[in-house]
Amino acid sequence: MSVDASNSVAFQEQPITQLLVKVAARCNIDCSYCYWFRDAAVYDKPKLMSAEVLQQLLLRLEQHVARYSLVDFPVILHGGEPLLWGVDNFHRFAEACEGVTSRTGCEIPIAVTTNGVLIDDQWLDCFEARNISVAISIDGPAHIHDAHRKTFQGTGTHAAVERAARMLVSRDIGVIALAVCNPAYTPQEYADFFAACGIANYDIMIPDATVDEKPSSIAPFYNGLFDLWLEANRTTPTSNVRIISDMVAALIGNNAPTEGVGHKPVELCTVMTDGTVEAHDVLRIAGDGFTNTRFNIFDHAIDDVRNEPRWKAARDASVNLCEKCRQCKFMNACGGGYLPHRFSRKNGFDNPSVYCDDLYSMFENMQSVLERHLYVRKQDGERIGVRSAAAGG
Ligand code: SF4
Ligand code: SF4
């Protein structure tokens, strides 16, 4: 991607603010759409993070938060399937992070993203005791989930994952369900399932695809999901659908917390099981070894990754948008779409999202609905619709 001065957008440099840690490089199930195993380079990594790498990681982590006087440094434990690392290692890691907090004053919230199959009472005790929040991957009801998320023997995993999800919500554990959208089904099917499980906090993520692919249209699904979200929260907040609340936040000019929505730099740092440091994990969608760097936590501080060409290229690509996106009225809210969805073999990241038409239609739909619902309060207390306010009413 060519980035000239006029094309370049200035975002303030800041230290790495969160860490994705791959504690296991293998998985115990076999999802058909998994981006992780699209990259054969992951098989070169150790299956699990060793005690030696963990110790070095903790050292670098403490150096990092102390050097930049961070008050908050979230860590996401990831895989493959991170629970393969074992419950004792989770306790060890969380306890060590508590030590870092007591010495530096920096909070280190720990989250884990899991397929849930291994969750049992011992894991629940660990999550609860260590205040580890859990994102569980479950694609709504069984007929949707089991189409893609299977065991290595080809059977569905839904029953095991639903059981785990219900166990999680029965305890004092922060839980979010992560589903991947299958636009062949309705958002109502997902919403009904999550409501039946007692899960009020969930995301339905856009399926991963690059510009070289031709994924199905997703706008009708997300427009329907937006209607459901609006209805569920009309009087009091009852359900948080992350992608919808993020898109609404971005549309009204706020910073969306997740990286797939809004125009902002992608600055994630991924530590692999062997201590190597990589660019954005999901960029491995672009193929073998795409995220590899020469950096590792034994020779480098965490923030050194900012000088790594591949990491910088991904970071720059996340903020320097293609011509079409720069002209788009939703540029700030959309940000060109999720970075991996902008990749093509021909142009790198210099493309609008493969879902551009859908995203445009989703934002347009949201905007027109919100304009009917939002109001501003005049100095005399009168409430007027934003449309009238914009027209000078
Ligand atoms: S659970 Fe996650 S890592 Fe494992 S196969 Fe499925 S998508 Fe891949
Ligand atoms: S809607 Fe399309 S053109 Fe507009 S910012 Fe998003 S990807 Fe770019």
TrEMBL record:
* Keyword Iron attributed: yes
The Radical SAM core domain extends over 13-239
Coiled-coil intervals in this record?
none
Task: Return the Pfam families for the record.
Answer: Radical_SAM
The record's SUPFAM superfamilies line, in alphabetical order, gives: Radical SAM enzymes
Could you confirm whether the keyword Metal-binding appears in this record? yes
Gene3D superfamilies with a match to the protein in the record: Aldolase class I
Keywords, A to Z, come to: 4Fe-4S, Iron, Iron-sulfur, Metal-binding, S-adenosyl-L-methionine
Q: What are the required cofactors? A: [4Fe-4S] cluster
**What is the name attached to this protein's record?**
Radical SAM core domain-containing protein
Which organism encodes this protein?
A: Bradyrhizobium elkanii
